[in-house]
Amino acid sequence: MFETLKSRPADSILALVQMYKEDPRQTKIDLGVGVYKDATGLTPIMRAIKSAEHQLWEEQDTKVYTGLAGDPAFADAMIKLVLGEAVARETVAAVATPGGTGAVRQAFELIQMARPEARVFVSNPTWPNHVSILNYLGIEVVPYRYFDNETRGVDFDGMIEDIGQAKAGDVVLLHGCCHNPTGANLNLTDWQSVVDVLLETGAVPMIDIAYQGFGDGLEEDARATRLVASSVPECLIAASCSKNFGIYRERTGLLMAVSQDADARKLNQDTLAFLNRQNYSFPPDHGARLVTMILNDDALRADWMAELEEVRSSMLELRSQLASELQRLSGSDRFGFLAQHRGMFSRLGATSEKVEEMRSKHGIYMVSDSRMNIAGLNAETVPILAKAIIDSGI
Ligand code: PMP
After folding, report:
1. Where are the domains of the chain?
2. Nearest residue CA, atom 5 of ligand 1?
């Protein structure tokens, strides 16, 4: 039977990882895959995670199943981290999921069950897996203008016009902070305008927040999500712990469905538990438990926050070094956007031919849409990248 399967193109980012591995040049630079790396190129296990794992190993006396929604303590701790005091706890239905991807997938399935004809509006560009999962589920995708290739900032007027086309019962997918793949973000005033459009159209927002703490700080990065959640009658929020806790392979995420209507909230909770049961039954617990331990223990939490802050400021430092080196070499401010962008990524705004040239000539690997992982740089490679960008005429 399996001969009927269609072969699928390899994931372009994973293919890039392979090409990088096979490149014999000592001077090669990997700005491809989206994981945080320190100055030595390592993706470290955070100190608080190590401590929590140690403690868990000592104290955990069973590995019996959790509930279908995961451990309620994990949901409580994450809802507080993401939403703060923006909404009352009892308005939030939540399930633990395998990573942020699991949360995104369950959110799309919930939308489809609630309203099979719903369209999902996504930024152009967005994280490719959003579009891929929507296509897979047969949900209609409507791109909205987002990245302005001239300014390398947000095409805000275009965005507002396009999401204004959404109808009640459609969904508008928004990145809570640190937009992937562009690095270009809205400010809080812009977010208020987005809220106004959502209220006018009756479209339901879905927020994907995968990088809380990587942009302007833990609280700052949650502000937009909190503003939206506290302003609209219903919203979905998919949160990932992969980046900010550095537990990529533990597959830790939470899907939240906020509803001001108590009956709808109960239906959401029951349906999300049902969806977990159908797809994988009980969600993974190890990463979720570590996160819960860290968030609920003052010392572990303080240590985690301090290390996350080091991660965040190291990326900001690399951004400003790169922007000023490019200013020096180009004699212009046209790369200033690199210091304005936030999170792990920046879209350089180069053609795929230039990206290819950077790879073949200089051994610099970035995604073909010119997304660079800023965390792939260090103090030595910043000037090398800047020179290659200028030499390539970008
Ligand atoms: N959303 C966005 C925007 C992302 O960039 C990512 C990670 N690449 C995810 C969700 C999902 O992350 P994970 O499944 O690894 O937690």
Report:
1. 11-45+301-391, 65-296
2. 180
Report the atom number in ligand 1 closest to the C-alpha of 101.
14
Is the model's pLDDT at 13 over the cut of 90?
no
Provide the β-strand partners of residue 204.
Answer: 171
| Residues flanking ligand 1, CB < 6 Å | 34, 99-101, 104, 127, 175, 180, 208, 210, 240, 242, 248, 253
Residue from 129, 237, 245, 250 to probe ligand 1 pocket by mutation (most atoms less than 8 Å from CB): 129
ipTM of the complex: 0.99
Above pLDDT 70, what percent of the chain?
100
pTM: 0.97
| 11-45+301-391 CATH pick, 3.40.640.10, 3.90.1150.10, 3.30.1300.10, 2.30.130.10 | 3.90.1150.10
Residue whose CB lies within 8 A of the most ligand 1 atoms, among 174, 225, 242, for a mutation test: 242
> What fold, for 65-296?
Aspartate Aminotransferase; domain 2 (3.40.640)
In what side-by-side order are the strands of the sheet with 234-240? 92-97, 253-259, 234-240, 204-209, 171-175, 119-124, 140-145
Coil vs helix vs strand at 373: strand
Specify which residues 124 forms β-bridges with.
145
Determine the Cα angle at 230 with ends 229 and 233, to 5°. Answer: 75
